[in-house]
Specification:
The complex is a heterodimer of chains A (410) and B (227). Chain A is an alpha+beta fold. Chain A folds into two domains: 197 residues, no CATH class; 195 residues, no CATH class. Chain A contains 15 helices and twelve strands. In chain A, the strands form two sheets. A six-stranded mixed beta barrel of chain A has the order 2-3-8-5-7-6. In chain A, strands 11-12 form a two-stranded antiparallel ribbon. The longest helix of chain A has 38 residues. Chain B is α/β, with parallel strands linked by helices and 227 residues long. Chain B has a domain of 155 residues: Rossmann fold (3-Layer(aba) Sandwich), CATH 3.40.50. Helices cover 36% and strands 30% of the residues of chain B. Chain B is built from seven helices and ten strands. In chain B, a hairpin with a 2-residue loop joins strand 9 and strand 10. The longest helix of chain B is centred in the C-terminal third of the chain and has 18 residues. The model of chain B has no long low-confidence stretch (mean pLDDT 91). The chains are: A alpha+beta (410), B alpha/beta (227). At the A-B interface, helix 1, helix 11, helix 12 and helix 15 of A face helix 2 and helix 3 of B. The structure holds adenosine-5'-diphosphate and magnesium ion (MG). Adenosine-5'-diphosphate binds next to strand 1, strand 2 and helix 1 of chain B.
């Protein structure tokens, strides 16, 4: 007895939808534009955050990092790691790992003939770093380091300006060894890099890992091992490295290494949700209004259908189906439009006009929208679920009509 | 067993200070296969009585029995089911669903009942033929004349073999040729399908077809004659 004659309900819903086709088209237009705005703007925001995270992750952290558990509180030589053992090297050669690098990283002071600056001296293995961090790609003058034994110094452009020195000149770098003795060493500036972020250009100076290790008497020890996987979004595979680590080794994902960046990404998800809901709310007024009108115009035939034996639940379902069809058509058009515009912009959007401001936020001049399937699904599901809830009110009103009243309404 | 039975049926409408007694203690029994005309001046309660019998309206007091079931206390869903399976309706006007074709309108009740597509098609085509509209099956109501629309409604009312058909002034909007045709159809169906007909009218031509003529005035039955 409770079965629903779905075919006839669908037919009625579909034909009624196109009955006042002008009103339906206006509403469809609104849904299409709304859905387009949801998906398009979300892809832009995602693209922006993507760029920020990728830049930040490339400016050294990697996707996960291994350190001595106390290193983050006190980044001194005393809190170093032994070089990666055989088991760890084995684990790091798995498919999940795109690249990894062991580095020495110590607080240091760099002095030229004119000025002195605090910075971080990073000893790297340039071969391991290629593809992992930015420096090799962003050289503007001189050469990059050639091996882990290289004793040249690579500094940022801003640092070079600050020190008022030049490529080819010598500077003195001063730091502390494991016994807290001050050690200094002369370096020749062999290369200059630039970065999207000026602070990066001041924060780090680079030389060969071996050079730092022998300067500070630390044997083969390293400060951190940075590991990069296939995507910063999912580092769960990399976190499994924990299984092969000892107690004196700590493994942390990028979003815990850089809490600001991590919370940014979480905040972004919240933003996307709010944005989608706000647009939907704007749409919902039109939607409810359209449906109320559609029901109101049909009082008599709804009464007729009830008189002929359609139960109130069927009337309710019919109006909800009509709502659903309207939403589905609008969603299809909106999704298509968004995907097409984003495809047309896949070469990136040039933001150089506003780049000064954007650069301060760590965003590149060219913005690449990032279309995530999850965001499309989220937008579509929200529109359908909330749309049907909005449709409940007119549907409920229609189902409450008394057949005799409805039939005598002229 | 009677098809319809009304006991002390009252339906009052309260409008401000005034109470309109649209049905005033009506007692009525109609048997299977009867062909009944409700006659009386406008405002005498014919529509109200048909609505009460059809479960479209709740009486103020009294009882309504249809096919052995008391219906005045049923809820909306049960009333809809009762109408779906036992009663065919022909209203005075606005009988058809505008977005459906003539044949789809005839099939509507069967479709809600869950009759299979092929059986629906056979039965609706047979009845459209019987009412003389076999070439109009694909037309929408707006493309049909008033008389043709009423005939589609009649086909729909009887297509699922209901126990009775309630027709409220079915000829009111028809010219006399169409009206004669429609009444001929009713008589024919009454004899062929043994369907009970209750037709309200104040049209003399219609009354001449009736085998039982009930006269109403001010919500009361004043005459009831078998002819
Ligand atoms: N919904 C209603 N509200 C108020 N009064 C009504 C309503 N329906 C019918 N009436 C009154 O009840 C009386 C009987 O009406 P009705 O059954 O339509 O008469 P008929 O069909 O014989 O013309 C009339 O006086 C009419 O005004
Ligand atoms: Mg009437």
């Amino acid at each position: 007895m409770t079965r629903m004659p779905v075919t006839i309900l669908f037919r009625l819903a579909w034909r009624n939808l196109w009955r006042n086709y002008r009103r339906t088209l206006i509403m469809l237009g609104a849904i299409t534009v709304g859905v387009w705005a949801m998906i398009f703007m979300t892809a832009l925001m995602r693209g922006m955050v993507d760029d920020m995270v990728k830049t930040a992750v490339r400016s050294l952290p990697g996707h996960v990092q291994i350190h001595h558990p106390r290193f983050r509180d006190d980044p001194s030589i005393a809190n170093s790691l032994p070089p990666p053992g055989e088991v760890l090297v084995d684990a790091l050669s798995s498919d999940q790992v795109v690249g990894w690098a062991a580095r020495v990283r110590v607080p240091a002071v760099v002095t030229s003939e004119r000025d002195t600056r605090g910075t971080t001296l990073v000893g790297i293995d340039p071969e391991a770093e290629s593809g992992l961090s930015f420096i090799a790609d962003d050289m503007i003058e001189g050469r990059f380091l050639q091996s882990f034994e290289d004793d040249g110094l690579v500094v940022g452009r801003k640092m070079l300006d600050n020190l008022e020195t030049k490529l080819g000149r010598r500077v003195v770098v001063m730091s502390q060894d494991a016994e807290n003795e001050i050690i200094d060493r002369g370096f020749r500036v062999v290369g200059v890099f630039e970065s999207k972020l000026e602070t990066t250009e001041e924060r780090f100076i680079f030389t060969g890992r071996k050079t730092v290790q022998s300067m500070l008497n630390m044997n083969e020890d390293v400060s951190e091992i940075a590991v990069v996987g296939s995507s910063y979004r999912d580092v769960s595979n990399l976190l499994r490295l924990q299984q092969v680590l000892g107690p004196e080794q700590e493994l942390l994902p990028w979003y815990e290494l850089d809490i600001y960046l991590g919370s940014m990404l979480t905040m972004m998800d919240g933003f996307v949700l709010i944005w989608i809901i706000v647009i939907f709310l704007a749409l919902s007024f039109g939607l409810v209004n359209t449906l109320v009108m559609a029901v109101f115009e049909r009082v008599r035939e709804i009464g007729l259908m009830q008189a002929l034996g359609m139960r109130p639940a069927m009337i309710l379902l019919q109006i909800l189906l009509e709502t659903l069809l309207l939403l589905l058509v609008g969603l299809a058009a909106g999704n298509l439009l968004a995907i097409l515009t984003l495809a047309a912009l896949s070469d990136g959007i040039d933001l150089s006009i506003v780049s000064e401001a954007m650069q301060m936020m760590g965003v590149a001049n060219v913005l690449y929208p990032s279309l995530q399937i999850g965001d499309i699904v989220l937008a579509d599901v929200i529109v359908i679920v909330l749309g049907l809830i909005a449709g409940l009110f007119p549907a409920w009103r229609a189902a409450r009509y008394q057949p005799v009243q409805a039939l005598t309404t002229v | 067993m009677s098809t319809v039975c009304c006991i002390d049926l009252c339906r009052f409408f309260v409008q401000g200070e005034q109470t309109v007694r649209a049905l005033d203690h009506v007692n009525l029994e109609i048997d299977k296969r009867e062909f009944v005309c409700l006659s009386g001046p406008s405002g005498s309660g014919k529509t109200t009585l048909l609505n009460a019998i059809g479960g479209l309206d709740k009486p103020t007091s009294g009882e309504v029995w249809v096919a052995g079931q008391r219906i005045d206390g049923l809820d909306k869903a049960d009333l809809a089911n009762m109408r779906l399976h036992h009663i065919g309706f022909v209203f005075q006007a606005y009988n058809l669903i505008p977005v459906l074709t003539a044949r789809e309108n005839v099939e509507f009740v069967m479709q809600v009942q869950g009759v299979t597509a092929s059986e629906r098609r056979d039965r609706s085509m047979a009845l459209l033929k019987e009412v003389g509209l076999e070439d109009m099956e694909e037309r929408r109501p707006a493309q049909l004349s008033g008389g043709q629309q009423q005939r589609v409604a009649v086909a729909r009312a009887i297509v699922s073999n209901p126990a009775m058909v309630l027709a409220d002034e079915p000829t009111a909007n028809l010219d006399s040729v169409s009206a004669e045709h429609l009444m001929g159809l009713f008589v024919n169906l009454n004899e062929k399908h043994q369907t009970t007909f209750i037709i309200s009218t104040h049209d003399q031509r219609v009354m001449s077809y009736a085998r039982r003529l009930i006269g109403m005035v001010d919500g009361r039955i004043v005459t009831d004659e078998i002819r």
